[in-house]
Amino acid sequence: MKIVLLGYMASGKSTIGKQLAKKLYLNFIDLDDYIEEKEKMSISTIFKEKGEIYFRRIEHIYLKEILNSDEKLVLSLGGGTPCYANNMDFINTTNAISVYLKTTIKTLVERLLKEKSKRPLVASLDNEKITEFVAKHLFERGYFYEQANFTLPIDNKTINKIVTEIRILLH
């Protein structure tokens, strides 16, 4: 079994993925961490030095590598992963189960403001501009996110509650 968690940045994919993997006795892979390990540089450095097109190409290659492996795992994607290189089509044609962790703009903005410095896409934005940025991005990406096997609204839920709800979806 492969479980793929997708959603916007700060929707909790990595946090929830780690807990879900622990409960299901599966390995956990964060795609961004995997890319950084393979490329021996941070995502922001890859973007700066090699550009987004290069990043999206290798992101697709590593996604395929992980999903084509025989390993049972929980995989959290980067926020943009489903939107490029026909990645959602690929995910949906594998034996993976995809879950969209759906979060409201309000919740995402609250979370992003707390960790702004760790989020290169919003780090340089004025706080007032972040809501507009998230709303526009979410609108553009929603089409891809909605192609997941399951959509799980997660606002105002504990990590344990979300993990439990995902486990229920899987049965």
Report the uncertain regions.
Answer: none
SSE order in H/E notation? EHEHHEHEHHHEH
Described by the principal axes of the CA atoms, the overall outline is globular
Our count of helices gives 8
The biggest beta sheet is recorded as:
5 strands, parallel
Overall strand count: 5
Radius of gyration, taken over Cα atoms and rounded to an integer in Å = 15 Å
Query: What is the CATH superfamily label?
Result: P-loop containing nucleotide triphosphate hydrolases
Which tags fit this structure?
171 residues, alpha/beta, Rossmann fold, five-stranded parallel beta sheet, 8 helices, 5 strands, globular
What does this structure look like?
With 171 residues, the protein is an alpha/beta fold. The mean pLDDT is 95. The termini are close together. It contains eight helices and five strands. Strands 2-3-1-4-5 form a five-stranded parallel β-sheet, with helices on both faces. It is globular and about 45 Å long. It has a single domain, classed as 3-Layer(aba) Sandwich (Rossmann fold).
